[in-house]
Design brief:
Layout (H helix, E strand, L loop, with lengths): L5 E3 L1 H13 L7 E9 L3 E9 L6 E6 L2 E6 H7 L2 E6 L6 E5 L5 E2 L5 E3 L1
Parallel strand pairs: 1-6, 2-5
Antiparallel strand pairs: 2-3, 3-9, 4-5, 6-7, 8-9
Length: 112
């Protein structure tokens, strides 16, 4: 595969680094990006900090942020851009996922 599996915008990077510091995590803690069942469209995004990869994880870096993604979630996330917005639609992380065929109105869940 050419290019990063998931990209992180500069704005998202800044907020990931702030959350990591505020939460008492060190730079060894990667951002785990995953997909779980749920939400009004069927799938929801999850973000957590973890220090150690699990069996089957893909670990890579983009824009200075180390990311961990399990193989099942990666199938849904390849090509996704992680961004952060403080706009009128609400402050928080937003996923620009080219694999999503539909998203709910609030943007918190998707389907493929």
């Amino acid at each position: 595969m050419q290019g990063p599996l998931i990209t992180v915008t500069d704005t998202a990077k800044m907020h990931v680094e702030k959350l990591r510091a505020d939460g008492g995590y060190n730079v060894e803690h990667a951002l785990r990006v995953s997909v779980d069942g749920g939400g009004c469209s069927g799938l929801v995004y999850k973000l957590d900090f973890e220090e150690n990869a699990q069996a089957g994880d893909q670990v890579f870096e983009h824009n200075g942020i180390r990311l961990m993604v399990n193989i099942k979630s990666l199938l849904y996330l390849v090509g996704t851009e992680l961004d952060f917005s403080g706009g009128l639609k609400g402050e928080g992380f937003h996923f620009k996922n080219p694999n999503a065929s539909r998203t709910c109105a609030c943007g918190e869940s998707f389907s493929v």
